[in-house]
Q: What sequence folds into this?
């Protein structure tokens, strides 16, 4: 199986506010014919979900399952998946993720993908170096990052795909933030939680959900700093009473892809896409199937072609949906 794991030294991530390494792994899956044919191939960029990396997504082996990298290789060899170069970057942070956005409280992760990773891949491997031959797809936070790339940086790729991507924040985030606030209060506030979290050799489910929301704050409601783990952002609930802080919540909603599709500039960006994919499981624990429905309704209302699917499943343990998402991407990109 032609898989390469290379190291990329980022200029844009150097001196990021969390002190995360600027040296990142990039997993590259080359099509079976790559060594025997000089032709160029389209590029598919795969964004993993929260608290994971490209290497974890592509190469980690689960019981009774082949890796995603192996499934891709098998499908390309069988001819059921059109050949493409598939890359999976690492945008992990001390908060567990970045939402694949530029934020002064996290680092420049959208720019890292658009302005460093894609040019690096185009230079090193035989891609077709144009937007129509590129797809950016992902799950959960990765699906969110894919949609935001399409809306904010449409010159980068001509195909975007979101599998159970974040959206409809009133449904998917607002009630859960109250539980996070209780956890923060029990830990002595944000600073107390951060001290506790740093000291844990393993992170339990409560810590996972709480630190995820702190990551969202750093992505969507950064403040003027000083930046660092546990600082540099505003929480959308009052830290004592839990009352909604309207100004901070409006900043979150401004980065909700459903709300963003209410703006003509974002709709115009997605009109330039060759193909758009959104889906959600009918039992998604975060109600992201409803987010996908709302996104699809907004796109349909604007007359923008897209593919919307629902499947029988929840948010977790749905590896077969990666196969569907990558099939869509590989079939939708332009070829030589």
A:
């Amino acid at each position: 199986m032609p898989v390469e794991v290379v190291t990329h030294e980022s200029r844009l991530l150097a001196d990021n506010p969390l002190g995360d390494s600027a040296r990142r792994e990039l997993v590259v899956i080359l099509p079976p014919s790559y060594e025997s044919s000089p032709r160029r191939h389209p590029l598919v960029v795969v964004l993993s979900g929260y608290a994971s990396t490209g290497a974890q997504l592509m190469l980690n082996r689960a019981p009774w399952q082949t890796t995603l990298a192996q499934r891709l290789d098998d499908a390309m060899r069988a001819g059921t998946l059109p050949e493409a170069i598939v890359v999976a970057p690492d945008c992990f942070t001390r908060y567990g993720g970045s939402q694949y956005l530029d934020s002064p409280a996290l680092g420049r992760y959208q720019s890292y993908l658009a302005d460093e990773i894609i040019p690096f891949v185009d230079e090193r491997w035989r891609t077709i170096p144009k937007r129509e031959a590129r797809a950016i797809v992902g799950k959960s936070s990765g699906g969110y990052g894919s949609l935001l790339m399409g809306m904010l940086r449409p010159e980068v790729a001509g195909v975007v795909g979101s599998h159970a991507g974040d959206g409809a924040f009133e449904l998917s985030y607002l009630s859960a933030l109250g539980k996070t606030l209780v956890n923060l209060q029990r830990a002595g506030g944000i600073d107390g939680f951060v001290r506790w979290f740093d000291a844990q050799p393993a992170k339990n489910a409560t810590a996972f959900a709480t630190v995820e929301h702190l990551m969202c704050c750093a992505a969507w409601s950064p403040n003027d700093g000083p930046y660092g783990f546990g600082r540099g952002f505003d929480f959308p609930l009052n830290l004592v009473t839990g009352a909604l802080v309207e100004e901070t919540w409006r900043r979150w909603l401004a980065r909700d892809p459903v709300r963003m599709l209410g703006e003509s500039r974002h709709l115009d960006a997605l009109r330039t896409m060759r193909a758009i994919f959104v889906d959600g499981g009918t039992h998604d624990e975060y109600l992201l199937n409803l987010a996908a429905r709302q996104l699809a309704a907004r796109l349909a209302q604007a007359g923008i072609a897209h593919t919307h699917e629902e499947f029988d499943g929840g948010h977790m343990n749905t590896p077969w949906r990666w196969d569907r998402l990558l099939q869509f991407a590989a079939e939708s990109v332009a070829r030589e």
Observations:
- The chain has two domains: 3-168+261-332, 171-253.
- The first strand starts at residue 3 and ends at 9.
- The chain has 13 helices and ten strands.
- Residues 3-168+261-332 form a domain with the Rossmann fold fold (CATH 3.40.50.1820).
